[in-house]
Amino acid sequence: MLRDFTFNEVYFLLLATRWTILLAVIAFVGGGLLGLVIAGMRVSPYAVLRRAAMAYIQFFQGTPLLIQLFMVFYGTAFIGLSPDPWTAAAITFIVNSAAFFGEIFYGSIESIPRGQWEISRALGFRFVPTLRLIILPQAFRLMLPPTVGFTVQIVKGTSVASLIGLTELARTATVINTVTFEPALVFGTVALIYFALCWPLSLLGASLERRLLVQKVRGGPLGKGAAASPAAAVAGPD
Amino acid sequence: MDYVFHFGPILDRWPLLLWGLSRTLELSLVSMVFGLAIGILGAVAKSFGPRPVAALASAYVELIRNTPLLIQLYFIFFTLPFIGLRLSSDTAAIVALSIHLGAYATEIVRAGIESIPAGQIEAGKALGLSGRQIIRHIVIVPAIRAVYPALGGQFILQLLGSSIVSAIAAEELTAIANNLVMQTFRNFEIYIVVAVMYFVVVQAFIMLFRLGGRLLFRWKV
Amino acid sequence: MNRLSPGRLLAGLLAGLFVMVSLGLAPAQAVTTDEIISRGKVIIAIDTTTAPYGMVDTSMEPSGFDIDVAKLVGEALGVPVEFVTVTSPGRIPSLLTNRVDMVISIFSITPERALQVAFSIPYAGQSSVVLAPKSLDIAGPEDLVGLKVGVTRGTGEDGLLTKQAEKFPGIEILRFDDYASISQAMLSGQIDAMGGGDYGDMYLQKSVDGEDFELKYILKSFFFGIGVRKDSPELLQWLNTLVYSLKNDGTLNELSIEHRGAPLPELPVF
Lengths: 238, 221, 270
Fold this sequence. Notes:
The complex is a heterotrimer of chains A (238), B (221) and C (270).
Chain A: H1 7-42, H2 47-62, H3 65-75, H4 85-110, H5 114-122, H6 127-157, H7 169-180, H8 183-217
Chain B: H1 8-11, H2 14-48, H3 51-65, H4 69-79, H5 89-114, H6 118-126, H7 131-161, H8 173-184, H9 187-219
Chain C: H1 6-24, H2 33-39, E1 42-46, E2 55-56, E3 62-63, H3 65-77, E4 81-85, H4 91-96, E5 102-103, H5 111-114, E6 118-119, E7 124-133, E8 148-152, H6 156-167, E9 172-176, H7 179-187, E10 193-197, E11 213-224, E12 227-228, H8 233-248, H9 251-260
Parallel strand pairs in C: 1-4, 1-5, 8-9, 8-10
Antiparallel strand pairs in C: 2-3, 6-12, 7-10, 7-11
C-alpha cells in the first residue's frame, strides 16, 4: 500500500466519470444514427440491403464486445491505421450499439401495421419519405422504452474500454486500487457511481414502458404486433 | 512498418483454444441453469410474493442490472473473503454470472407472467388445482413459452459476457487467448480466430435453442 | 424530400468515421532523435498500474521509476514528454503500429520479444520471487505442491512458475490481469503464494487471516530495457548512451532507492 483511500481518490473517480459519460454519449448518438440506417436497410425494398443489415446485426451481436474492441484497436494496423484508445473505443461502441439499436428500431417499425405502408404507397410516397414521415413518428413511442433500457447497457459496457488502457471510470479504479489496495472501498465506490448513472435511466425506461402499456390497454392506435414486450429488447453487451 | 500476418503459432495451439471454448460453454451453461432458476423464483416473488419479498426481489434486480458485471466479479471474489466467504475462481465466476443472469431473467419471466390473462388463473382455480399447481402449469410454463426468444437473447449475452471472468483468474476462451497473446505477441490473429469461434458457437446455440423450443413446447400446453 | 436518404446518411457517417480515424492516426514515424526534436515532443508508452515503476500520484499525474526515467529522456532530448498509457499486452503493438516512439514500462529484455522490437541496455532490474505468508514453510517449488499460486498473466513469473508447475504436478497457477489483483487475492486469502517482484512484500499488509508475508525464494533476475522499433538503430544507440551515462552518474541508483527502497542491482550490458 502506498497511500490511503481518501476523499481525494473519490474525487478523481468522480472526475473520471465524465469520460465514461462522454463515451456513452458518443455511443448513444453515433450508434443511434447508424442504428437508424441499419433499421432502414432492414425494412428496405431491396433484398441486398436487408441481407447486409441482417449480417451486420448478426456479426456484432454474435461476438463479444471485448473482442470487437481488440480488433479495432490492435487489428486496424494491417490497413496502416493505429487509432488511439479513444478513437478505437468510440468506433467500436458506435458500430456495436448500432447493431442493437438497429434491432430495437426494426422491431418497433415492424409492429406498425403493414397497411400503413400500403396506404402511403397508394398516396404516392416513396420508401424513405414513408419511413421518415409516417412510420417512424408512430414507431418512436414504441422504440423509446427499449432504447432507454439499452442506454443503461451502453453506460455499463464502457467499462470494457478500460482493457485497452482508456482511462475512464473502471480503469481509474484499477489505477487507484494499485496504490491503495483497498478493493472493497474502490470497487464499492465505483459500483455506486455506476448505479447513480444507470438507475435513473432504468427508472425512466420502466416508466415509459408502463405508459406505453396503459395506452395499449386503453386501445391506443397501436397494431397487434406491439403486444411483444419491449422489455425483451432490454439487453446488451456487458 | 507493415504488419505481417502469422496464423501458424495460433493453429499450433488449437487444443488449448478448444479447451478454452469448452470452459466457456461450461461456465455459460451452468450459470444459465442457475440464472433461469433464480429468474423464475424472482419473478414469482415479484408477482405473487408478499410485499417485503417482492420489494427484496426488486432491490436485487435493480442493484444487479445497474452495475457492471466486472465490478460484481471483483466484489464476489475479492471482498466476500473479508466476511468469511471464500469462493474459488471458477465458483465465484459461476456465482457472479448466475446472479447477473438471474436479475435479467427475473424481469423477462415477470413480463411473461404479466402476459397471462387473469381469467386463465381463475379457470385453474375453478378446476380445483392447488396454488402450486396453478403457478407451475398455468403461470410458469406458459410464461416461459411467451418469453422464450427473449430468454434466448439473454443467454447469448451471457455466453459473450463470460469473456470477462478472466479478471478473477477463471480460465475460459478469452483468458486462453490472452495467454497466447502473451506467448506469441500475435494479438490480431488470435482475436480474429477467437471472434470466429464465438460467432460459430453463438450461431449453433441459436439453432439449438430454436430446435429446443420446438421440441419443448409442441407437447407442453 | 430526399434530404435524409439512407445513402447520404451512410456516406456522411462513413466520412465522419474516416475523419475520426485520421485524427487517431499516429504521427509520422519518428525513427531518429533529430525527427523527435524537430517535432517538439517525445511520445512514450507507460503503464500506471505497475507500482512502484508506473502509478499515479495524489493529483493523478503519472509517477514512479519508469515515469522518472521517461522524464529524463525528455530532458536529455530537450523536448516535453507526451505519455501514452498502455496495458501490459499493449506494449509491443503500440510500438509496431507507430503509436509511440518508445516503451518505458517494466519491459523485461527477452529474446522472444526482441524478435519484434529492439531493447536498449537495461536501466533497472529486479528479481522475480515467490512471496507467501510467514507461517507457510516454502523453500522451493516442491513446497508449492497443493497450493494456489497467483501470477500476472504473461509476466516472467508466469513463465517460470508455469514451468515449475509442469515439473511438480499439483501446483495450481491462477493468472490475473494485473499486480493489484494478485496482491488483493493474496490479502483475501484466495491464493496461498504469489509470484512478484522483490519489492512486492512492501505492498502487502496483513491478510484477512492476520498473516504477514515474506520473500520465500528467488525465481530469476530480470532487467528492464527501453523498447523501440527495430528500424530505429540511431535512436537505440542514443538511448544506450543515455542509460550508460545515467547509470554512471548515480541517477538510476537514486531512483531505485527512492522508488524501490533498495539500491540498483548490478546491471549487465550487451
